[in-house]
Structure formats: C-alpha cells, structure tokens
C-alpha cells in the first residue's frame, strides 16, 4: 500500500522519486503545501501525518509541543496545534509573523474553508484578488480553495489563530491533480 500511495502522490503532482527519498531520509524539508498534498494522497489529514499517534480520543497539546511546519526569515512560525481525523479534517494553528514576513498558500482542495482571529498586531490577508486588513480581535472566514496569503506589513509582531476545515480527506470524490505542485 505504501508504494501505491507514493506513486499516486508523486506521479499526480509531477514529483521525482528521489524527492521522496530525500524527505524520508530527512535530507529535505517539505513545504506545508507538499505535506498537505501528501496527507491527502494517503487519505489522512495533515495532523495524522505530523503528530504522534494517539491511543486515546482526547489529545492535549501543551505549550511548545505543536508541530512547527513553517518558519519565517525573521523568526515567525506556523505551528499546527492539533486536528481531527479524516474524512472531515479540522486543523488548529497558532501563527506568528514578524514585521515584513508573509506566508503564501496555494489553493487547497475544493470546499476548504479557513477561519482566523487576530490576537495581536495587524494582519493583511489576500484571498484571490481581494485584500483584507484585520486588527486585534478581528476575525475572517474565507474559502481556502483559492490562493491566499497572510502578511505582516506593520512594524510590530503579529499573532493569530487559524482553523482550517478540509472536507472529505481521502474520499474518492477528491481529485488528485486539483492542486498545483508546491514551489
């Protein structure tokens, strides 16, 4: 089964086999986009791919224990705090962006929705061709199935929480080639 999943993932997104070997051996760090496509190809949510296995239904993530899946040039971080199991995956993230940092995201699979709230600072969110500027305690819900970006264009640190809802992870109605390969 493992070989089938890898073939499906790598051939569906135009990746070379040596790239998978580099990831497996720890010689390469895949992007968040690559991890999302890989988890979808395996029919599991991103949390199932990066978090330790859970034997109990209740999971606590203590301060500092989340999976850091994005690191900015100036010290910002995207930390996956936890998530539910497939087929309808909900992820909870804690993001910090230092002044001048940004994170661009490819469109996720059809039906993905994102909900965020600014805890500190000012956040600029680009969704498709629209731009939204949010201040402390502001919230935004938007379709995650179009390209989007989070930006800190201010001179102060920024922190926000993000919830991502991805319906039907691993179900047959999802099309493998619907996302472009990560850069």
Topology of helices and strands:
Elements (H helix, E strand, L loop, with lengths): L1 H12 L3 H8 L7 H11 L3 H5 L16 E5 L5 E7 L5 E9 L4 E4 L7 E8 L2 E5 L2 E5 L4 E5 L4 E4 L6 E9 L17
Antiparallel strand pairs: 1-2, 2-3, 3-10, 4-9, 5-8, 5-10, 6-7, 6-9
Write structural notes for this entry.
The protein has 183 residues and is of the alpha+beta class. It contains 4 helices and 10 strands, in the order ααααββββββββββ. The strands form 2 sheets. Strands 1-2-3-10-5-8 form a 6-stranded antiparallel β-sheet. Strands 4-9-6-7 form a 4-stranded antiparallel β-sheet, with no helix packed on it. The protein is globular and about 40 Å long.
Q: What is the average per-residue confidence, as pLDDT, rounded to a whole number?
A: 80
Strand order of the largest sheet: 1-2-3-10-5-8
Sheet with most strands = 6 strands, antiparallel
Report Rg: 16 Å
Kindly, what is the distance between the CA atoms of the first and last residues, rounded to a whole number of angstroms?
27 Å
The SSE string, one letter per element, is: HHHHEEEEEEEEEE
Structural classification:
alpha+beta
Low-confidence stretches: 1-11, 173-183
What's the tally of helices? 4
Strand content: 25-35%
Shape: globular
> How many beta-strand segments?
10
Helix content: 10-25%
């Amino acid at each position: 089964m493992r070989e089938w999943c890898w073939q499906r993932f790598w051939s569906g997104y135009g990746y070379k086999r040596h790239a998978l070997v580099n990831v497996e051996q720890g010689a390469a760090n895949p992007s968040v986009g690559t991890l999302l496509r890989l988890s979808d190809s395996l029919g599991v949510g991103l949390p199932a791919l990066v978090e330790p296995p859970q034997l109990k239904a209740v999971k606590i993530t203590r301060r500092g224990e989340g999976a850091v899946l994005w690191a900015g040039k100036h010290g910002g971080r995207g930390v996956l705090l936890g998530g539910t199991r497939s087929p309808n995956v909900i992820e909870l993230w804690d993001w910090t962006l230092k002044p001048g940092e940004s994170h661009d995201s490819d469109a996720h699979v059809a039906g993905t929705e994102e909900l965020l709230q600014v805890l500190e600072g000012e956040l600029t969110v680009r969704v498709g061709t629209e731009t939204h500027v949010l201040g402390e305690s502001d919230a935004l819900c938007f379709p995650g199935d179009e390209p989007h970006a989070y930006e800190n264009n201010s001179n102060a640190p920024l922190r926000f929480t993000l919830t991502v809802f991805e319906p039907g992870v691993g179900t047959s109605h999802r099309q493998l080639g619907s996302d472009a390969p990560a850069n």
